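fyi for ur records
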Amino acid sequence: MNTLTAKTTAQVRAKDVRFTGDTLRVQLSDGREIRLQMDDIPWLQWLARATPKQRANWSLEPGGYAIYWDDLDDGIEVCHLLDSQPIA
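which gave:
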């Protein structure tokens, strides 16, 4: 078990979500930002196909551990975002 990853994941939370074209941008509580090209990630195709209105209707789960899109009835946990992409 990698305790360093688990500890970092437990502490970092989502603060804000933005979209730039086909890029999902998630601002983290420690000041870093995750940028993901949705079209390039198979498990984000549901979000890539969403309308701008559907993408805009997101909320943070309590504590910021996940982002949820009510219109799409789906969400993403921050730990999965951290595992999928280098953080800029």
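Residues 60 and 67 are 5 Å apart (CA to CA). thats all i got for now
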